[in-house]
C-alpha cells in the first residue's frame, strides 16, 4: 500500500488575498488638496526682508499650509555644513530641542520653521507645536519633516539643511534655497516623539498625508 502523500508545506510570503497597501501620496495629490485657500492668518507674510507681504497661512480641518520660497535654516548644533563659518547668520540654538535637551541638527533632521507668534498668526492656536509633522512639496517631490524652529514674526518660508537636501534643493545656507514653488503643509495636533526621530516623522507623515488626501474636507 503506498504511503500517504505528504501534505504541502505551509505557503510562505504575503497573503494574496490581503489588501494591497495604499500607494504613496504624490506631490500632485497634495497640491490638488491645497489648491484653494481659506486664510487662518489675520494678515500676510513676507518671503524675505524688504519684500511685499503676499503669503497667507491657509487652513483646513486637518492642516494649515502656505506656499512660499525656501530659505535655509542652518541653526542648531554645529556640524560640518552648519556652523558660524558656513552661515553668517548661524545660531547654535533652535526654538525646540531634541529629547536630551540639545538643539536640533539642521544638517541631519528635516524640519520646517514657523513664524514666531504675533498678531498675524499664532501657530499654537491651530494645533501646531514643536514636533508637529509637516509635508513639504517642491516640484514632483514630497518630503516629511517636523516643526523644529521659529523665525521672524513677519517672514515665512524656511526649512533646515536636511529638508532642502531631501527635496533636491541646494541646501547651502549662503547661496542655496528656492525662490518660490515650495508648499508647506503642517498636520494639526500631530507630534513626533522624540522630536529628532527622522524615521518616525517619515512614517507618520506618510500616514497623515494619505488621510489628508483621502479626507472629504
Describe this protein with a few key phrases.
3 helices, two-stranded antiparallel sheet, single chain, 24% strand, 9 strands
The amount of beta strand, in percent, is: 15-25%
What is the helical fraction, as a range of percent? 10-25%
- The coarse overall form would be globular
SS-derived structural category: alpha+beta
Instruction: Show unreliable segments.
Output: 4-8
Distance between the termini: 69 Å
What's the rounded overall pLDDT mean?
Answer: 93
Radius of gyration: 21 Å
**How many β-strand stretches?**
9
Largest sheet: 7 strands, mixed
Give the number of helices.
Answer: 3
Order of helices and strands: HEEEEEEEEHEH
Structure, explained:
The chain is α+β, with helices and mostly antiparallel strands and 217 residues long. It has three helices and nine strands. The protein has helices spanning 27-33, 161-166, 198-214, and strands spanning 45-46, 53-55, 58-59, 63-73, 111-115, 133-138, 141-151, 158-160, 178-187. Strands 3, 4, 5, 6, 7, 8 and 9 form a seven-stranded mixed β-sheet that branches. It has a two-stranded antiparallel sheet with strand order 1-2. The protein is globular and about 55 Å long.
Question: How would you summarize the topology of this molecule?
Answer:
Elements: H1 27-33, E1 45-46, E2 53-55, E3 58-59, E4 63-73, E5 111-115, E6 133-138, E7 141-151, E8 158-160, H2 161-166, E9 178-187, H3 198-214
What's this model, at a glance?
This protein is α+β, with helices and mostly antiparallel strands. The chain contains 3 helices and 9 strands; from the N terminus they run αββββββββαβα. The strands form 2 sheets. Strands 3, 4, 5, 6, 7, 8 and 9 form a 7-stranded mixed β-sheet that branches. A two-stranded antiparallel sheet has the order 1-2.
Amino acid at each position: 500500500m503506498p504511503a500517504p502523500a505528504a501534505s504541502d508545506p505551509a505557503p510562505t510570503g504575503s497573503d494574496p488575498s490581503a489588501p494591497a497597501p495604499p500607494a504613496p501620496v504624490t506631490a500632485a495629490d497634495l497640491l490638488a488638496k491645497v489648491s484653494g485657500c481659506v486664510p487662518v492668518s489675520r494678515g500676510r507674510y513676507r518671503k524675505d526682508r524688504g519684500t511685499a507681504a503676499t503669503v497667507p497661512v491657509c487652513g483646513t480641518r486637518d492642516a494649515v499650509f502656505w506656499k512660499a520660497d525656501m530659505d535655509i535654516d542652518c541653526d542648531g548644533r554645529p556640524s560640518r555644513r552648519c556652523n558660524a563659518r558656513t552661515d553668517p547668520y548661524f545660531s547654535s540654538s533652535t526654538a525646540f530641542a531634541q529629547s536630551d535637551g540639545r538643539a536640533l541638527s539642521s544638517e541631519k533632521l528635516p524640519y520646517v520653521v514657523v513664524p514666531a507668534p504675533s498678531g498675524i498668526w499664532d501657530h499654537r492656536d491651530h494645533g501646531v507645536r514643536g514636533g508637529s509633522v509637516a509635508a513639504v512639496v517642491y516640484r514632483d517631490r514630497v518630503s516629511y519633516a517636523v516643526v523644529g524652529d521659529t523665525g521672524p514674526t513677519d517672514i515665512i518660508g524656511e526649512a533646515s539643511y536636511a529638508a532642502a537636501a531631501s527635496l533636491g534643493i541646494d541646501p547651502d545656507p549662503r547661496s542655496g534655497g528656492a525662490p518660490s514653488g515650495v508648499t508647506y503643509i503642517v498636520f494639526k495636533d500631530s507630534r513626533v516623539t522624540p522630536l529628532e526621530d527622522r524615521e518616525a516623522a517619515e512614517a507618520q507623515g506618510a500616514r497623515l498625508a494619505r488621510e489628508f488626501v483621502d479626507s472629504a474636507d
